[in-house]
Amino acid sequence: MILGYSFWGFLGSGVVDTPDGGRSHRRALIDGLRERGHRVVFLQANRDRDEAHLDLTPIYDWDAGYPDIDVLFLEWRWPIPGRNTTTCGTPGHTCDLHRQQQLLDVYSARGVPVLLWDKDRQLPAEHPIRRAPAVAVCEPALHPAPGAVSLLFPVADEALDGADPVTLTKLRRDLPLVYIGNQYDRDEAFDRHFAPAARRHTHLIAGKWPRSSQWSDLNFAGRIAFDAVDRLYRRSVATVLLLPDRYASVGHMTQRLFEAVLAGCLPLTPATIREASRFTPRQLHISDGDDAANRLEQLLAVVGEQDHAEVLHACLARLDQFRLSRQLDTVEHTLTGLALRRVG
Questions:
Q1: Which residues pair with 61 in a beta bridge?
Q2: Residues with Cβ within 8 Å of residue 61, at least 6 apart in sequence
Q3: 315/165 Cα distance (integer angstroms)
Q4: Nearest Cα to Cα of residue 316 among 268, 269, 280
Q5: Is the model's pTM score more than 0.70?
Q6: What angle do CA 336, 337, 340 make, to 5 degrees?
Q7: What is the rounded distance in angstroms from the CA atom of residue 62 to the CA atom of residue 239?
């Protein structure tokens, strides 16, 4: 099929001042679709070229118009006041939302079906697009909303097959605790599960946390380059999986899980996350920040030893559900259903 793919982010490393988590998995998905014979045309701005000065046009296709496509594939965008809700051309404006609506208007008029991937759970339950006959909604959750399809963030098969827990646990790890990620809707989880542990262990917090005055005693480093994420995880013993309630309640796991595990950093996991045992073994589950601190002390005592490798092996095994080939099967099954709806 010819897929018109709309995303607001990067295929490469992008720029530092961006919240685009899709860099960890977007290119793997696109390349996998292409390897299966689909043609992909990008329909939003080429931010890799325009902002990051990385020219990928010899490899991928961008189109600022409305080319003929079989399916419109949306990474769903939502209104962000002061950014994409302002008038085009005003300072700070991004045109992702306007462009998305234009794409929906044009291709709906043409009868082109839509695969909508609600990666941030921002699509309201009452939104009429959920009831449109030629739209399939996907969510990266174990328990998506009624009528939606579970499409998890993909991890390349080669990355999973090549990860060796023994080798990873032998790396020098001089940082006991790390958190990499932005503040968005995580204050409660951070205060309960991370901050108490950070007060007892050497730590680093990398990401955009503009409202952190209540944790002035903790070590906030600000945003780091995407290329630095793996390096930081590789020198860290553990992290904590912090999810907004709207994620935790449905088993919606972010890319932070596999970014950490593939670098050998153990993810301490709040037991309140739905089906937490699907993501990590029980010896990494925590009830609060004090529990996290105690678990971390136990982990620090076995760094580089067999017990360390066994726990990491259990984490790696649980990443199989994110395997790219599995997610591609889900996408293709959904695309086939959409194609049949168009014929109907």
A1: 41
A2: 39, 40, 41, 42
A3: 9
A4: 280
A5: yes
A6: 90
A7: 37
Distance CA 142, CA 318 (A): 13
Q: Report whether 202 contacts 264 (CB < 8 A).
A: no
For residue 109 the two structure tokens come to: 């008029």
The identity of residue 166, as a single letter, is V
Question: What whole-number distance in Å separates Cα of residue 216 and Cα of residue 128?
Answer: 44
Would you write out the chain's pLDDT as a tens digit for each of its 344 residues?
A: 999 999 999 999 999 877 788 999 999 999 999 999 999 999 999 999 999 999 999 999 999 999 999 999 999 999 989 888 888 888 888 899 999 999 999 999 999 999 999 999 999 999 999 999 899 999 999 999 999 999 999 999 999 999 999 999 999 999 999 999 999 999 999 999 999 999 999 999 999 999 999 999 999 999 999 999 999 999 999 999 999 999 999 999 999 999 999 999 999 999 999 999 999 999 999 999 999 999 999 999 999 999 999 999 999 999 999 999 999 999 999 999 998 776 54
Reading the block at residue 316, the tokens are 């790696």
Write out the DSSP string of 325-338. Answer: HHHHHHHHHHHHHH
Q: How far is CA 21 from CA 10, 37, 226, in A?
A: 9, 26, 9
Which residues, 6 or more positions from 143, have their beta carbon under 8 angstroms from its beta carbon? 150, 250, 251, 274, 275
CB 74 within 8 A of CB 114: yes
* Rounded-to-integer distance, Cα 101 and Cα 79, Å: 11
The residue whose two tokens read 């994620």 is 247
Q: How far apart are CA 32 and CA 24, in angstroms?
A: 14
